[in-house]
Design the sequence.
């Protein structure tokens, strides 16, 4: 576990998308966020107190979260400089970048000298096994998407909280860097060696016997030509009894692939269900989450209602309208025979 | 390229499956195989002259191929000992094991001192990019399977040779360790970081403009709960105009998963075509390859004929009966609009 409270790093970033990891941590773990660190040229803010490294450490911050994404996940000189300053001030450092903190000799030496820790959250667990698809007990929900970055993580966390608010045992299972920093654990499935994708998810959400839910964050899309392999392995490893499909209406093309349209929502859901049946024969759809943050609220409400009618499933924007209709449906579901199986 | 001729390693193995890489190299590159190395307790042979390390080097062998698979792809002390002896005798060493030769300090030091090379063929290329699915010129065929280890590599190599025998330009594109050692190049797609599966295959079989074929080795199966993510990424990256499906009749369960039956051949083919259409909308099936090595030849012939009638596609055992019926079909195919496209 990464020791809280946190100082969230914005650095010199002027691109709101580049700070999405820091923003996610601020949104979902506000109680653990003491402040933000930004240089003078950074025009962005998360609305937290702006603190220097020593100032933050003196106020009790235990870890600097390097929650930004540079080009190609690189760890540039300015980030190394600031991470070193955090260590010198007495804080641990956590990062979800592709380049690892521990591979920087200066940071490794500083951390060792001060008995502080470097957390590279994209590191896969060392003891991964290949998946088996054998039935395992426990109730599992997986979010899937028409595309990357359509709001799967926000939907997943909100669904896990919604279940808990209604008295169910439920845990968010993170599969990407931001989710891992929010949850304090998880597997960055995009960084796992290809043979171990489904096995990593079986390990992330093992059998459980408390009638509670593992609410698993999806990645990518079966319809994304770059990442569908990750999405399929995740789908098989999750062995979910319920899928929730996520979409961002109005997106002009698949992320990063100009010219490629998004799949139809109903077809995308059907293909996900079909593929999921390999390891979860009774899987069903529990709802639809739309990211309508770019829409007028009234239009967003109308779109949710129309989508609900068209697909026959509860449809909501989890941030704008909450997830109650989906939680209602989940709580009414008869547990699948799989979810209460003890056969291994 | 790994310098030939080769000395093929059998070591102390008594398990025919454990030497499948050495056997594959002997089967498909006999002209490059000078001999086999085995200890006295090894009861297996590939029918090649048995040579010691110095003897092989003196006869002109330039590389020892460590073509065996121990438990978990491990590089045990006995293999290290023998690899060191090969280096001392003046040969390079090549291995497809998960554990890397270069991570063994003794081997690394010996190779450097003698200006010899260590080839870890499972290493992914350093410069992988994520896939895009953009149309690229060239004709591509991919083998897919009902399961792992049903004969996809043998079928793929035989198809590439069959095309060349009929005057077509055709290249075998290897995606596993044995295929890479046979081809002298390729990408071990099971060892690639998950985000790069389809991108690695786009790089392995880039656009070509000579009207020739890239004949791409498939891996795993869309129906294998351990490895389907690899198979799907490979399918999307291959952007094939023709699929050939491979099966081993009579297999009791999916490899490594007791209790899980193999998919129906026709359904498996249909699902592969459906998934392949994401990046190759005009993809079609070109034939069926059955591995009937465990069957009586007359029964094998009858099964091929019956399967051909049932699925309406040429069906053969590539090793027992050759691949002429599939080559006939491929040579009659109108190139898809994609295969002659120059749009990027």
Sequence:
């Amino acid at each position: 576990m990464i020791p809280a409270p946190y100082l969230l790093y914005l650095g010199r970033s002027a691109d709101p998308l580049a700070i999405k990891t820091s923003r996610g941590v601020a949104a979902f773990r506000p109680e653990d966020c003491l402040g933000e660190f930004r240089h003078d040229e950074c025009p962005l803010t998360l609305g937290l107190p702006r603190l220097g490294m020593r100032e933050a450490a003196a106020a009790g911050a235990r870890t600097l979260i390097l929650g930004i994404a540079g080009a190609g996940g690189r760890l540039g000189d300015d980030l190394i400089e600031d991470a070193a300053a955090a260590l010198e001030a007495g804080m641990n450092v956590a990062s979800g970048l592709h380049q690892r903190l521990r591979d920087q000799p200066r940071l490794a030496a500083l951390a060792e000298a001060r008995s502080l820790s470097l957390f590279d959250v994209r590191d896969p667990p060392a003891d991964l096994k290949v998946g088996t698809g054998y039935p395992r007990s426990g109730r599992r929900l997986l979010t899937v998407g028409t595309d990357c970055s359509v709001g799967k993580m926000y939907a997943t966390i909100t669904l896990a909280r919604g279940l808990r608010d209604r008295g169910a045992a439920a845990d968010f299972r993170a599969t990407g860097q931001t989710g891992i920093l929010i949850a304090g654990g998880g597997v960055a499935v995009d960084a796992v060696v290809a043979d171990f994708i489904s096995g990593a998810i079986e390990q992330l959400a093992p059998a459980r016997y408390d009638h509670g839910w593992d609410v698993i964050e999806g990645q990518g899309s079966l319809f994304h030509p770059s990442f569908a392999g990750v999405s399929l392995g995740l789908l098989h490893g999750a062995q979910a009894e319920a899928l929730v499909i996520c979409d961002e209406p109005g997106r002009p093309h698949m992320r990063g692939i100009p010219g490629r349209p998004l799949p139809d929502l109903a077809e995308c859901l059907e293909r996900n269900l079909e593929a999921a049946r390999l390891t979860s024969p009774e899987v069903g759809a529990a709802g639809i989450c739309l990211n309508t943050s770019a829409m007028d609220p009234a239009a967003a409400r109308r779109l949710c209602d129309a989508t609900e009618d068209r697909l026959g499933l509860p449809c909501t924007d989890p941030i704008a309208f909450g997830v109650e209709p989906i939680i209602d449906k989940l709580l009414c579901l008869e547990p699948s025979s799989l979810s209460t199986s003890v056969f291994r």
In short: The longest helix of chain B spans residues 297-311.
